[in-house]
Structures are given as C-alpha cells and as structure tokens.
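Sample entry (242 residues):
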Amino acid sequence: MTAQCSYPVGGVQPASFTVTFPDGLQAGDTAPGSVVTNFTSEGAAALGATVQFARNTSLVEMTYQGASTYGNPYYSAAPFSAATYLNGTLPVADISGAWLTYPQAGTVSAQVTGLTLNLRAFYPGGGVRTWFTSNDSDRNPETVDVPCTLDPGQALSATFLVAPRTRPVDTTAPTAPAPLTVSELTQTSAKISWGASTDDQGVDRYSVIVRQASGDASIAPQETRGTSFTLRGLKRDTPYTV
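Predicted structure, serialized as tokens:
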C-alpha cells in the first residue's frame, strides 16, 4: 500500500507498507488481526540519521468485522477499530497489530482506514531533534506528527476465513521467560535478553512491554520470535520497567 505524507522537512513524500492477515484460523483462536511489514518512507530519511516511530499516533488504522477484542469471547456484529503501532527504527518489519479473538467460524472482513506517523529523529552526531508545533498529538517536543493520505485505487479491504474448531483448546500457559538481562547500554538504547519459555504446544512469540517507572509514556508492545530485543529512543536518566 502507498500513501503521501506531509513531513515538516522535505514536504509531501511517499510512504509504502504491506499489510497481511492471518491464515489457518479456527474458531476460538487468538492471533494478530494484521501484520505490517516493509514500511519505507523517503521523507523520514530527511528528519535525521536514525528515525524512530513514537508511541502515540504512528499507526495503521484498521476496522474489523467478525472478530472480538483480545480476551473477549463474545462476538459482536458491529465493526470495531484497532491499530497497528509502528514502533522502532526504520526499516520497520513484522509489526503485529492488535491481537483479536475469533469466536466463531465464518468470514472476517478487515479494512485499512488511515495512516498517521509520530516520529522522533536523531541527529547524525547524536542527540534527539526537538520540534515545537501547536498540533502535536502527544505534546512532546522530541516527536512530530506526520499526517498521511492513502493513495486511491488500492485494495484497502480484505476478507479471511475462520474454520470450525477441530484442534483442542490450549489451556496450559507457557513458563515465564527468565532470566531477564540488559546489555549494550547507551544513552538512548538498551538490549534486553531473556531465557526461552517452554510450552506443551510450543511458544509462538514474545511480547515486549516497556513503561517508564512513573507509569507514563508507555511504549506499545513489540512482538518478536527471538529471545532479545533492542529498545531505542530511550530518555537519559529515566528508569524503565520491562
């Protein structure tokens, strides 16, 4: 998919990304509603040597019908909205969207309804670039909003099937990942590693959740199939919990 984004430096520049939807679902499964991959943006390169997507409005907006929010087993015929947050540095790859529950067999429809970026840029020599704009959604001078308009003529909607349930329901939780270690510390980044979890039916992926110690400005969960993840765009002298 392609879009035109209005950057504060460089003006209107194209962006592109791919949205894929789940396959092989059975009634009762829980899985990401979508995965965004291959996100590229020519305009973002003009903002700094390294560009990181911030928490609040860097998202692909989605509307679903035929699914429920994660953990809610009840099906509703009404469509609802969910977002895929684009956290991390460019290039962005394999970003899982909101996890959804698929309570019953049938057809699920999904539609891409918008794209908004909230970017943090770094100077080539180090340090975060600051912005002062009146309409910044998170009122953070280290980030800037970039509104995007999806190009016309694209396949913005898709459908996928949920089959009747034949697999047994997995009711045994995996073991907790441990120990958790931190390495490769810099003023704005840290590598987090952990011991692998075990499970009777296998471990699919890990969700990395990061919050400032105050509970504010949490970073949207990141999904990974590995046992390490590098956190970027951290603030100096700020405690975080992982």
